[in-house]
């Protein structure tokens, strides 16, 4: 550890893949060992990629805990189990996407997106906030999206969930500042991860009952191919977003 420097405890949600995994690895492998990373994921059976990427940081500057942001019990147990360490930085990264004509999406699917992207983040903030306020220190980061600022066709519900969390955080940030607790939003554009790849591959094969033929044709023949082009031409990497996140907490 850098001499005279306290190690910051950073808890990150959704570290099984993509951006969360990359942030966890980048911080845990910091040359000056400024961070102790508590990398969380809802299914620890998925830990191998993270453990491999973390290398010798695993078990030293990176520890692993189970955490499902959709479960009150899981969130409480996770925060209780790190109570003696005080969380300096919370990175709310866990999220799910949802793409397609809205007529063909069930209410349960829509609720899952809000339960994860909105309530999952709120649940985490609510749990860590009291200790941060008491200590008058801390930084909460929320992984939003450009879709939290601008609506995008066929991403109606995902966009709405990110708008919702933007609104919540804008309000919270003002209250938290009075307690010297910072709240920052990161709003990535397209990022090449399995999040995007999985979703595009799945949606291209699916049927869209309930949606009219013209909408489905536009979605499959125009929207999906042009989105793939955009991801390929403009997409950032999870590593790019991890570097940006590290800058935000430095
Ligand atoms: P990934 O699908 O690669 O990662 C999402 C992570 O969230 C996974 O680890 C997943 O775990 C986890 N997760 C999902 N639901 C839960 C839950 N209930 N509890 C705990 N963890 C959960 O996608 P990305 O890395 O791209 O996404 C990370 C964040 O970045 C998301 O918030 C997303 O909205 C945002 N973002 C992504 C962009 C992109 O183009 N990819 C662009 C802008 C923002 P599991 O493996 O168990 O499913």
TrEMBL record:
A GO term for molecular function: all-trans-retinol dehydrogenase (NAD+) activity
N-terminal signal peptide: none
Record keywords, A-Z: Lipid metabolism, Oxidoreductase
Record GO cellular component, one term: cytosol
Binding site for substrate: 145
Catalytic site: 158 (proton acceptor)
Oxidoreductase listed as a keyword: yes
Protein's GO biological process: estrogen biosynthetic process; retinol metabolic process
Superkingdom in the source lineage: Eukaryota
Ketoreductase domain boundaries: 8-194
Binding-site list for NADP(+): 14-42, 68, 162
Family membership: Belongs to the short-chain dehydrogenases/reductases (SDR) family.
Protein name: Retinol dehydrogenase 8
Residue window of the full protein shown: 1 to 250 of 318
């Amino acid at each position: 550890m850098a001499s005279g420097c306290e190690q910051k405890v950073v808890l990150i949600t959704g570290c099984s893949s993509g951006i969360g995994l990359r942030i966890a690895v980048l911080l845990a492998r910091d040359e000056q060992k400024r961070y102790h990373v508590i990398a969380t994921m809802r299914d620890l059976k998925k830990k191998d990629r993270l453990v491999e990427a973390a290398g010798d940081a695993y078990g030293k500057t990176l520890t692993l805990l189970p955490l499902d942001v959709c479960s009150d019990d899981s969130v409480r147990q996770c925060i209780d189990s790190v109570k003696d360490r005080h969380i300096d930085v919370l990175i709310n990264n866990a999220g799910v996407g949802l793409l397609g004509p809205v007529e063909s999406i069930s209410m349960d699917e829509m609720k899952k997106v809000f339960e994860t992207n909105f309530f999952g983040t709120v649940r985490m903030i609510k749990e860590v906030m009291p200790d941060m306020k008491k200590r008058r220190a801390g930084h909460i980061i929320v992984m939003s999206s450009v879709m939290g600022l601008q609506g995008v066709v066929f991403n109606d519900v995902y966009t709405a969930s990110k708008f919702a969390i933007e609104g919540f955080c804008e309000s919270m940030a003002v209250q938290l500042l009075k307690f010297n607790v910072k709240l920052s939003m990161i709003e990535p554009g397209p990022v090449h991860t399995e999040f995007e790849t999985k979703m595009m591959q799945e949606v291209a094969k699916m049927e869209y009952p309930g949606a009219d033929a013209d909408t489905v044709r536009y979605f499959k023949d125009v929207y999906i191919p042009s989105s793939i082009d955009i991801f390929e031409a403009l997409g950032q990497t999870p590593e790019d977003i991890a570097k940006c996140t590290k800058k935000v907490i430095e």
